Amino acid sequence: MDLKKNDVEKEEAEKEKEEEEAEKEKEQEEEKEEEKEQDEEEEEEEEEDEEEEEEADEIEQKDEIEIEKEEDPISEPNIEIEIPKKEKYSICLLDSKGNPKQFIVFSGTSQTMSEEEIKNHLFSNDEERNYINTLDPQPIYSSTPQQIHSDDTIRTIKKKIINELGTNKVCYEEIYLFSNYREKIKILDAYQQITGSKKTIGKTETLLEKQLLELENISNQLDKRILGQFLLNLKVENIESVDTEKQEYTYEDLLTFMPKEGSYTTSIPLGQKFSRSHNLLFSGNPFDILASEGDPIFQRSRENDLYVFENHLLMNYGKIQDNIIYCCLVDDVLEYAVDNSFEPKYLIDLYYPLLYKKNITNKELFLENQENLIRNNKELIRPDVIRQFNIIDSFYDIYYSRTSELPYIEKGIEYFDIIIHPDFDIPLPLDIIFKQIHSIKKIPFIKYNPGLRRENIFRLYTEEIAKNGKKIPFLKKSQIFNLSRQTGKSRQISLYIQHETLRQVLDIFLDLEYNGNMRIRCNLKKPISIPDLETIIFNSINPIILSINQFLENSGYTIALFEELKDKRVEIIQLDYGCKINLKKQMKLENLLGCLTTIFDINVMELDVTKNVNIQFVRVDNYVKMNAIAAIITDVFRRTANQEEVMNALMLNFSMDQDTALKEVVKYFNEHTRIQGQYVNKNIDIVDNPGFPVIFSKSPFDDKLVIKVSKINSIEFVDILRIYLDTIIRLTQYPESTNQELLEKMILLCNKKTKKVQIDKGIDNLIITGNTVPIVPLEIFDRNEDEIEEKEDINDFEEDEYKYIPLDEEEVEEKDEVKEKNEVKEKNEDKHHDESDDKEEQQIPLQQNPSEKTPSIKSNESNRFLPSEPSSIKSNESNRFLPSEPSSVKSNESNRFLPSEPSSVKSNESNKFLPSEPSSVKS
């Protein structure tokens, strides 16, 4: 038995040895295979490198540019680049007490700035420098060759900060950014917001204030702690007159130490935005939260929720004060919370939503997970990401280092469509407005669509009378028909304005909508700059607003004047930008493919400008790659906010039936994020953005390059696009017009193969936390009353039965007036149109040479007035230039200048000046 046992044990031992040897052999074979794979990968990489070098050599030979490849372009030389100060950003890290502990200047140059140079750059006055000198310990000062650009996303800026501080020290989720912003604030609006009182509109501001003071049941009283937080957030310092013994404060109390309207510095979060307006009780600086008993002062609200946008661009947050971005790490904020008895979960929810989303709600949980979070930096800060940063920097460097301007034939805005939103969600009294406004030669066509299945009413300017006594419209019949089709949606007054400048005659459309919106659009015949565009809008629209306000003020409603395109009330629906320049040689965009893919989505196989190159600009907010159907839906919905228009666009462009179009629309809204609109009368906004279409083309009959960018939705993009397009043209056509060392570096970067721009898969455009209130996806579309009315509305001109209201004193056409039949109208009108067409062209010199107009009068007080505008007079109230009509008169009531027609007469009833018919008419 013992022998048998020994034999069995020996056999088992031998089997185990054999199995071990077999496993070793397997491991050796696997190691050999891995080595082979590594060798093959290395060989492939070497082959790819050789191919890239060969391609680079070929490209260099073709372009006759000799480049020595002795240095890596990313770590290349000390090149002096003069970056404008307004484009140079700095990072300020705050300690646990909210004091600066480190300043990093993103200088964009490899030359290190001295501490004194950094201080001179950061601190514009002695007061700031003296404050910094009192700090103990003193902040650390440094500079970096990295750059921060206004078209960088908040996520990109955080990556650059991590790269600067150290990828093994800071994780992405523990960074919170904010900046200081100077903002005009009306104390009345602020008081109503922080007390929760509803806005009440009276006849004048004084009456409005009186009504507010008489309110008895205010849901949220202005007590001591709310007032303290409010004053701290606005950084109000002169508060010696505040009665600290009082327990509650009224609007009158605020006026004792604050003006009714003033500019205040507020801290705003970067990467977070309120759905409606900035809540003045929210502290953008987490170290400015006042300690208080009970619940925190600021609480989230469904009506004005705080959204988190990591893919928002820096440009969306206005003009950052001193270009300083403040950085708060979660360790310091949580230490501040402990010292001031704050709930850590509350602060993490507000300022670190990515940690909150991972259920990290206190310091202990953060320390447990910190190592794993830092490990993710390897994926965030990859070499190809750093290379993309360098390529974008090079685009700006080439532009900033230009030695001469490019000889553009033309460049600027070619089309604009904007909406000026009201301050209050109050219906506009369209009936009253239409009864008071009159057509004049400058505004020859006015259409009012009252809605509710009521027929359209028109006002047409006339200068001549037919033999049968009928007035002949100034515009031709075909123009009237065309304008009728283009204008006047339901519950809207549309004005057609012929605005003359020295360079061109513009057809501007102004739509007054029932919800208070003013929509202005124009297709420009020649591209113009942003300042020119603002002046044209100012001079053409504000006189109309002034005249309307004269009779609206008595009813307690006034329309705000247009100031500038960056006004927070102005929504850019669409801008089209274009430029044209002579080609010196064949344009080979494929030579720049490695750089172009960082700013464009390129899906075309051939980049031949003679065949039109259609690409998509992708450095936009919340970029999402969309197919053609989704892009159409996004574009039409943003322009119209009308589901019926969206469906019609799909049926027209993709030959869909109504059911299929409806399914596509429902599918789209279930797949793309929607939030509350930021304006008082805009309910829904779409988060995702497909980018801007860009077309490079060559003129068919000459060697001219034409570039068109359409569907731009922010005024800030115009300068950014100008920089990118200018650099592309310099690289391909005018290489001698910039720094040659930078040019060589850029070409090396562009010659290397690069992947297309990749959007981080781990980050959403809208960060949804447990407390965020998203808009639920659509399951069905219900057509609202306005859309039904609009579709069923009968166009009076198309029915060949129309009525118009010619300019005549006290002449207002009533709804029950008898219609004139088509046969009688055409018999009389067509005859006189035919006879007077040529005569009208001579009498109305709209097509005359603009250079023959009277030279403009320029004022030293304002540079808003452009030489291309007609002779103007100055408005004392707005300190701007307004164009004048012949024989203008002054309104005593409003102390404003209003344009009038020749031989104007005064209305005794309204004590206003209204334009009248010319004293003589032609038979």
From TrEMBL:
Which GO cellular component term is one of those annotated? precatalytic spliceosome
Q: Where is the composition biased (Basic and acidic residues)?
A: 1-16, 816-836
Q: Which InterPro entries does this chain map to?
A: EJC-associated_protein (IPR052793)
Some GO term, biological process aspect, for this entry: which one?
RNA splicing
- What are this entry's molecular-function GO terms? RNA binding
Q: Where is the composition biased (Acidic residues)?
A: 30-74, 787-815
* Compositional bias per record (Polar residues), positions renumbered to this chain: 844-923
Question: Where do the segments described as Disordered lie?
Answer: 1-81, 787-923
Recorded protein name is Uncharacterized protein
Q: Which organism is it from?
A: viral metagenome
